[in-house]
Structures are given as C-alpha cells and as structure tokens.
Amino acid sequence: MNANRRSPLVIEPARRHELPAALRLAFQYLSADDQDARVANALRLVRARELDPAGVLVARAGEQLLGAMMSMPVPGASGLVWPPQVTPGQGRGPIEEQLVQAATRGLSRRGAKLAQSLLAPRDVPLADPLERNGFVHTTSLWYMRHDLHLSAALLLPEDRLTYLSYAVGDPGVFHRTLLRTYEHSLDCPEVNGVRDIGEIIAGHRSQGCHDPDRWWLAQDGGNPVGVLLMTETPDLQGWDLSYLGVVPEARRRGIGLQLARKAIIETRAAEAAQLTLSVDARNGPAWDLYRRLGFEPFDQREVYLAIWPPVTRGVPPADTSPEDRP
After folding, report:
1. What are all long-range contacts of 206-214, with beta carbons under 8 Å and residues at least 24 apart?
2. What's the whole-model pTM score?
3. Which of 117, 142, 155, 252 has the highest CB neighbour count under 10 A?
C-alpha cells in the first residue's frame, strides 16, 4: 500500500499558506511559463477578493497534498472548472473522482445551474474525470479577431436598422428580444432554458468592462429584430462582441451582417486595437459571416459542459461507489 494513503483521504479547500503549492499542482499540466502566470494571476485574484480560495480544492492524506483542482462560480448561475490533477506517482482514479465531485457539489450549493471547462485541444485527455462525472464534450469554441480594416464595399451599404441602447430603452423589450434570439440558435443550444433572464443578464454584465450604452436593441421599421452586446477588454486593448442574435422571423435578411458591421464600426470609432469574439464551431452561418467580414481565428477551446437538472440544483451530486469515498 502507498505510504501516502495510510491516512484517510480528505478533500477540502486549500489552507491559506498552501495556496501557492495547491495552485501549482492544479496547473502542473501547463508549460512552466503558463503555470507561473496562472498561479500568479490566481493569487492576485485571491488578494483582490475576486477569487474565493474555497474553490481551490486539495486532496490530502495527513499533511501531504495528493491532488488539487480549481473551480469557481461566475455570475449568471454558472461555474468554471479546471481538470483535477494528482501528484506524480499517485495514479489517476479515485482522487480525481472525488475532487470533481466535491467541486460540482460546491458549485451547485452556490446556485450554479451549469458548469463548463474550456480546454486547449492538447489538454483534452485531462477531461476523462470530468466526463466520468457528468460533463459532456459539447463543441469546439473558436476565438476570432478583426484588425478593424474594412473594404469600401462593406463600409458603403447603408444600415436600415435603428438602434436603442440598453441604458435608455425598455429593459423588458430588450430581455424579451434577447430570449427570442435564442430560439433555434446554433450557438450552444444545450444551455437554452437552463437559466432565467435575470441570470443571463448578470452573466453578460460580468464580462469585461460593462457599459449599458454598448448593448443595443436593433429595430427594423419599429419592430425588434435583434440584439448586439459588446464590452471593452482593456487587457487586449480592444472590444469583444459578446453576443449577436437575431429573432427567428428576421433571419436570412442580412440583419446579422448589419449587426456585425455595426460592431466593427463602433470598435473603430472607439479607437480600439481589435475586436474579438467566440463562435460555436457548429454555427456554420455565423462562421461564414465573420470570415466574410474579415475576422480571423486565433485560438480554439474544447467545451465540456455539465447541466444539473432542476430537481438536483442545490443538492449534492451523487457520490460514486462507497469504496471511492474518503
């Protein structure tokens, strides 16, 4: 029997003094430079009280750390998780299982209705313990950016739409239109209906530097036809197109093109360096539209998603077999 396992296995939040070691273990799969950057950023967020250290979980036997995992709730009844890691020589299995189960219990108790893990393609093998505990590989997410140069042909067409910002418009109309844009959407349709409108709005508000003047309701002849949500991203010296949606009856009429053009033009007017966005790889029409406008892909993530049924939200997910429990 491994000497490290003679003491009972305990899963608990990392103690304050061991946070650096726990974070280094949780990010051991990254390159040395990326690991240093992630650990430093996480510790900075803890000091700023933007990251709850209770989300840094460790598996210990006595005083020895055998594994670690990070999870954190995010606004909008959601959570983020990173794959569990174990110390070299421990072997993958029960330790990983219990870390994932403890993380999902914690997120559920704090009101999360769904959680996701976004992994670089090279890190996909690390998702096995997530998939064994309710996470499903849902799609690939492509990140794209635009250098804000537009051809004359794309700048010339006159926009027939009128726009009303969230700051001055009727929030109820905006919310109803936003929800309608989700109908038959090709962007992660798995999450449609999971969260209520208040949670959805809270999630969008938490992205970047929120400004309600950069959220627009698009109208055609006085009828709401779509929404455009943008946010400033100072770290990237740019803006992000957080969401673009068109109501079902207005699709295939060029409205998505007009909204995307508005996003580029507004970003240029703000003298930002670039405009970024992310798109579900299954959304062929959106991919084609963005490429047509000059967006170029620059990164990719594999999305692992867990959605907890309403009857189990706030209730700890079931454990595995008795022998796998601490």
Report:
1. 206/74, 206/75, 206/76, 207/231, 207/240, 207/242, 208/232, 208/233, 208/234, 208/240, 208/242, 209/233, 209/234, 212/165, 212/166, 212/167, 213/165, 213/166, 213/167, 214/165, 214/239, 214/266
2. 0.88
3. 117
Cα within 13 Å of Cα(319), Cβ side? 10
Q: What's the distance, CA 172 to chain centroid?
A: 25
Residue 326 has pLDDT above 80, yes or no: no
* CATH fold label, 143-301: Aminopeptidase (3.40.630)
Residues of the chain with CATH 3.40.630.30: 3-134, 143-301
Sign of the CA dihedral 82, 83, 84, 87? negative
pLDDT at position 152, please?
A: 61
Top-level CATH class of 3-134?
A: alpha beta
Mark residue 98 as left, alpha or beta (left: phi above 0; alpha: psi -120 to 50; beta: remaining): alpha
What mean pLDDT is predicted for residues 280-303?
A: 95
With bands split at pLDDT 50, 70 and 90, how would you rate the model's confidence at 154? low
